[in-house]
Design goal:
Blueprint (H helix, E strand, L loop, with lengths): L2 H18 L11 H15 L3 H19 L3 H5 L7 H27 L6 H19 L24 H25 L3 H20 L6 E2 L4 E7 L4 H4 L5 H17 L4 E3 L13 H13 L3 E10 L2 E10 L4 E3 L13 H10 L17 E3 L2 E7 L6 H5 L7 E6 L9 H16 L3 E5 L5 E3 L5 E4 L6 E7 L2 E2 L3 H5 L2 H18 L4
Helix pairs in contact: 1-2, 1-3, 2-3, 2-7, 3-5, 5-6, 6-7, 6-16, 7-8, 7-14, 7-16
Length: 496
């Protein structure tokens, strides 16, 4: 076999291994597979040059993101994008994301990951996590399939309230690095490294079940309203009146069953506030009379476009406008460069703008709600903004954009991670599912079935206090990985 043929075969293998990687995340949640898959990639990179490692990382990324997030194509049909353009955009998105593992592998080997076993066990995990962190904020960020999320139902979840998803992702990567180094160089250094990470895993298991936050007042009855409107009919003018009637009837049902806080999904009201003023005024009076609060998603006007917003009526008052927008879905990055191209392709151009100032916290009695809208739940920093005042988290979303794909399950797993990181219960209302009530340990207390109209009515305990992660955020994990990178690079230098 020629070297070129061997490289091609290795790349094909890595595409397959990468394609298996999403099984480590929801809905399968085979958490151990994240360690094994990344270890295979690290092992091959540790014995290759920098350019070849970049190719290996890209092949792995094509499989990983091609299988794990190609559901993005589903959303294009609702944006008047059809035919070959859908697959061109999807392929471009997957290739862009695959560039991140390629960068991580190239950087690690360039810094000396192939020099010795210990440098490989440190450099490859460090560059992977730092590049993953880069992916989490570049162009406002895309955090799907980050290693830490694989541990939501794994033994690493005990460390999440301490170090967050990036910190637990570092543990996964370091374990993969130690295994890869052990396979390539069976020596004392790799055995010691693997022993150290095994001890950290044991610490994580021991921390599972620790209550990091305390009750704040009495339990409160909350309800989520899942309207179940398909995305292709949600915004039809003929559906406005039936939509409002459905949500009102379901809310009255929930309040009659004892709900004090009723949560509707993102853009549950498919109109602008001025066009439904009479409806919202009537809803306000009804909820106020029932001593309840109803919060709902709606699009509101802004100075130069629109806000994706949540408004409260009834006993509670306040509003929240989305701050962290979805690239291409809600705003166009590099607008001057890409706008002519998108218009030439007849791709609709979004007109949302991000809220600049800190938003008012919505309150209902003693409840202080930390609200996120859809994509914002993918970022721990967005949730931490509302703390320590918020004693209950609320996320509203509309995953109807992605149909019956992996996306709603992955989004739910990410949202569960946010609750676990900060030790707060979380109420999540979505249009077509999955609507849930999540406990402070990230556990799903109750959930609505997908693609059904449903009311989820549960009692939930508000909580106060801060987890270590809620206090310090992601920076300690990032700094720790930089230090690991420096140590690994130092060990890779030839000793005089």
């Amino acid at each position: 076999m020629t070297p070129r043929a061997g490289t091609s075969t290795t790349c094909v293998v890595l595409v397959i291994v990468g394609a298996l990687m999403p099984l480590a995340f929801a809905p399968s949640a085979w958490w151990w597979l994240a360690i094994v898959a990344v270890a295979v990639l690290f092992y091959l990179c540790a014995t290759a040059g920098a350019s070849l490692s970049a190719l290996y990382g890209f092949a792995f990324g094509l499989g990983m993101f091609g299988a794990g997030v190609s559901w993005i194509h589903e959303s294009f049909q609702f944006s008047n994008v059809h035919g070959p353009i859908v697959w061109i955009l999807t392929g471009g998105f997957v290739a862009f994301l695959a560039g991140f593992p390629a960068l991580a592998c190239w950087a690690a080997v360039r810094l000396g990951a192939g020099t010795n076993s210990l440098s490989a066990a440190l450099l490859l995990p460090a560059t992977w996590l730092l590049v993953e962190w880069l992916r989490g904020w570049a162009l406002t960020g895309f955090t799907w399939l980050q290693l830490g999320y694989s541990q939501m139902d794994g033994p690493g979840s005990g460390l999440v309230p301490v170090v967050g998803s990036y910190g637990v992702g570092a543990l996964v990567a370091l374990t993969a690095g130690a295994l890869a180094a052990l396979a390539a160089h069976r020596n004392r250094a790799t055995a010691v490294t693997l022993t150290i990470v095994a001890v950290v895993w044991c610490v994580s298991v021991a921390l599972k079940g620790v209550a990091w936050t305390d009750p704040d007042g009495m339990p409160v009855r909350v309800a989520t309203i899942q309207g179940n409107y398909p995305q292709d009919s949600k915004w039809l003018a003929s559906n406005l009146a039936p939509t409002l009637a459905r949500y009102q009837a379901l809310s009255e049902q929930a309040i009659a069953a004892g709900a004090e806080l009723v949560v509707w999904p993102e853009t549950a009201v498919p109109s602008l506030p001025g066009r439904v003023r009479q409806f919202t005024d009537d809803l306000h009076r009804y909820a106020q009379t029932a001593n309840a609060t109803v919060i709902f998603g709606i699009v509101t006007r802004a100075s130069e476009g629109f806000h994706n917003s949540v408004l409260a009526v009834g006993v509670g008052q306040g509003s929240y406008h989305k701050r962290h927008l979805v690239p291409f879905g809600e705003y166009i990055p590099f607008r001057a460069l890409l706008l002519p191209l998108l218009r030439a392709m007849q791709v609709p151009v979004p007109q949302f703008i991000a809220a600049e100032a800190s938003n008012e916290l919505v309150q209902h009695g003693n409840l202080v709600l930390g609200i996120t809208i859809c994509y914002e739940a993918a970022f721990g920093a967005e949730v931490r903004r509302a703390l320590p005042r918020a004693n209950l988290l609320v996320n509203v979303s509309n995953d109807a954009w992605f149909g019956d794909t992996l996306a709603p399950h992955q989004h739910l797993q990410i949202t569960r991670m946010r609750a676990l990181e900060v030790g707060r219960a979380l109420v999540r209302a979505t249009n077509t599912g999955i609507s849930v009530v999540i406990g402070p340990a990230g556990e799903v207390v109750a959930r609505s079935p997908q693609f059904e109209t449903h009311v989820l009515n549960r009692s939930i305990q508000p909580l106060r206090g801060l987890t270590p992660y809620a206090r310090i955020g992601d920076w300690p994990s990032v700094v720790a990985m930089i230090l690991v990178l420096l140590v690994g690079a130092r060990l890779a230098r030839p000793q005089r």
